[in-house]
UniProtKB/TrEMBL annotation:
The keyword Cell cycle does not apply. This is Membrane protein. It comes from Leptospira mtsangambouensis. Residues 1-24 form the signal peptide. Keywords: Membrane, Signal, Transmembrane, Transmembrane helix.
Length: 665
């Protein structure tokens, strides 16, 4: 219970934090935005573009950020891009820095012909061997910038097969403090996501130990753990821990290579699917690639390989969508949520591939889509758990009812049968030990009668116990009351009359209504009365009343039965059990039963059951002149079937005359 509460608090706090952690950059710190489609590009190893006399009008125009490999796929030399920008006097007084996005593979940055940074190293003092895919921040010396027009030149070299250039933004000149804070903020937000993934992994891992049969919990926790490791190995904060680009890149690609298998395994466990034929071979292949990366210690080779490997992720997502769609057609639980999550994930993967190859200049949504996937599947798994818990609760309730039924049966058996059984035992012992040659036939007859009485009362005990454990009727039906009741009442056993509107319908358990009417007619004490009349009538609300009127010439008989019906006894009798059955049926039907003595000789029993009758068919009682119109409108809630029947009857009886539009001659 505590873990569930903590889980909900964490989820709520996380989303509140994310929804309020949007960072707004102060416009005073953004000096100049440099991205756009007005950059000049120069494919040549000759650095003559740095010469102040170089004619920039001869350059081709391109857009930055973009992938320059798409402009000239066969070229593998140096690529230069050039842009002019202006600095005002106010901007010149600030401590500025050039902020670039992810560059593939290496770069040299010049302002007004002077080198200010090389391969993620300020002023090119100690450039990193590999730094591709990392954002750049280069401080600009104050004396280097001119008030007015300045020239920015970026030299890019890349041996990567698919990427070359400034692939992503931002590309701008800002204050040095804002550049550092911006990168740090982005890294911290990503770390929050990583923490959320780790929390999900830990939560389901702990739940798996409590529910070992839920394999999807284990596979889901492993999937979240792999993705959190992948995201953590990509975060810029990793360089504060260890400043080794190759080692961190190897860890990142290792997580990435095994991520698709973890994804497939979770889907199979979630939908209870069998592994496909070559699934183990697929896993071994990924570990083989990791081993190759460990042997060939070259991040450029790794990147080029991943550039072709990531295409197969579309096939993995395609497989996931296919099996999910099959489960969706079978109306499997959780398939709808999973299908929606997969569509967004497919969109994000396609978008990421296009961004990495420079075909699309847009922020990546891969982390967001996987967060959505994990959150949605967390909800789906928790929903499945709640449904399983509900089934167990229902099963427990049924077992509890069975235990209660057994206890009640044993209680009634002990109260009702122990005496007759003891009497039978004594008679059988006496019969067995008798020394007479001709044994008493009357004794045998008495034993048989006791056995017969036990059989009869056992049926009533079981029926009473069954009714007492029921909380409501199993199912209800709606039929016309008149046609139903004519088949229920045994005509030879009782005199009856029906004064009920013919349109009246009853919506209840017809079996129980049949049972209670028959049991009241056949109730043994009623047989002692000289007359037993039944009048079935209706009140203003449309409810049906079974009014039994019993007459006996001896008032003491009526009074005694009245006392038996209203009083509670500590000891049970067969008659008392039969009456208890009637009262239990009345409870389940939601009915009411009343008793009254009239003129000391008549016993009146009134059984009221809710019924449905059209409002237009109800007639007000004209006995009292003080009755208001509101009295006649106090009717029971009309059932929708009755409403439709009444509307259909009205339409059939309504005559529609179509006017004659023909012109008279």
């Amino acid at each position: 219970m505590k873990s569930s509460i903590l889980h909900r608090i964490f989820i709520l706090s996380f989303f509140l934090f994310v929804s309020n952690c949007a960072r707004f950059t102060d416009e005073n710190t953004v000096v100049l935005r440099l991205d756009g489609d007005d950059w000049g590009i120069y494919f040549n190893d000759n650095p003559d573009i740095l010469n102040s006399e170089f004619n920039a009008n001869n350059l081709d125009i391109t857009t930055v950020p973009s992938n320059f490999r798409n402009i000239n796929k066969s070229y593998r030399g140096s690529i230069w891009v050039r842009k002019n920008f202006e600095i005002t006097t106010e901007q010149h007084q600030k401590s500025l820095a050039l902020q670039l996005g992810k560059i593939y593979q290496s770069d040299e940055v010049f302002i007004n012909g002077v080198l200010i940074g090389k391969n993620n190293s300020a002023f090119g003092k100690d450039p990193d061997e590999f730094a591709f895919g990392r954002p750049r921040i280069y401080p600009i010396p104050h004396d280097l910038l001119l008030e007015g027009e300045n020239v920015l030149i970026v030299k890019v070299n890349s041996s990567l097969s698919t990427s070359a250039g400034i692939i992503t933004g931002p590309i701008r000149i800002v204050t040095y403090e804002e550049a550092l804070n911006g990168n740090l903020y982005d890294s911290l937000v990503e770390l929050i996501f990583v923490g959320f993934y780790l929390f999900i992994a830990l939560f389901f891992f702990i739940n798996f130990f409590n529910l070992r049969d839920k394999k999807e919990y284990l596979s889901f926790s492993i999937l979240a753990l792999i993705f959190s490791g992948y995201e953590l190995s990509k975060n810029e904060v990793r360089f504060f821990l260890i400043n080794q680009f190759a080692i961190l890149k190897f860890i990142e690609y290792s997580f990435l290579l095994i991520l698709p298998y973890g994804f497939i395994k979770f889907i199979q466990d979630f939908f209870e699917l069998k592994p496909f034929k070559y699934q183990r071979l697929y896993l071994l292949t990924q570990f083989f690639f990791i081993a190759v990366f460990a042997i060939i210690h070259n991040p450029v080779f790794w990147y080029n390989f991943i550039g072709y490997w990531d295409i197969h992720l579309l096939a993995v997502i395609g497989y996931a969508i296919y099996v999910t769609f099959l489960k969706f057609r079978d109306q499997a639980r959780g398939s709808t949520i999973h299908l929606l999550a997969l569509v967004y994930l497919l969109y994000s993967i396609l978008k990421e591939i296009l961004i990495e190859r420079g075909y699309l200049n847009s922020p990546s949504s891969l982390e967001t889509s996987f967060l959505v996937y994990l959150v949605l599947m967390t909800l789906a798994l928790r929903f499945q758990f709640l449904m399983m818990k509900r089934k167990l609760q229902n099963r427990y309730e049924r077992l509890k009812e069975a235990d209660s039924l057994r206890e009640k049966i044993f209680y009634y058996m002990d109260a009702m049968i122990s005496g007759p059984l003891k009497s039978m035992k004594e008679k059988l012992i006496s019969f067995r030990e008798s020394t007479q040659k001709t044994k008493d036939k009357n004794l045998v007859k008495e034993v048989i009668e006791v056995q017969s009485s036990i059989d009869n009362v056992m049926d009533d005990i079981i029926e009473l116990s069954r009714l007492e454990v029921l909380k409501e009727v199993p199912f209800k039906e709606q039929v016309n009351f008149i046609s139903f009741i004519n088949e229920v009442i045994p005509e030879d056993d009782i005199t009856y009359s029906i004064k009920v509107n013919p349109e009246t319908e009853i919506h209840n358990s017809l079996d129980l209504i049949n049972s209670v009417v028959v049991r009241l007619v056949d109730f043994p004490p009623f047989k002692e009365f000289n007359h037993n009349d039944l009048i079935i009538t209706q009140d203003l609300k449309g409810n049906v009343h079974f009014r039994f009127l019993l007459f006996h010439s001896n008032p003491k008989v009526s009074q005694r039965l009245f006392s038996d019906l209203v009083e509670n006894y500590n000891t049970l009798t067969p008659v008392k059990v039969k009456w208890a059955i009637i009262l239990e049926i009345v409870r389940l039907l939601g009915a009411k039963i009343d008793f009254k003595i009239i003129k000391k000789k008549y016993l009146k029993i009134d059984l009221g059951i809710a019924a449905i009758v059209p409002i237009s068919e109800l007639q007000p009682i004209k006995e009292s002149k003080t009755s208001t119109p509101t009295t006649t409108n106090k009717t029971g809630k009309e059932d929708w079937r009755v409403t439709l029947k009444r509307i259909w009857k009205f339409l059939k009886e309504t005559e529609i005359k179509i006017p004659n539009f023909k012109k008279k001659k």
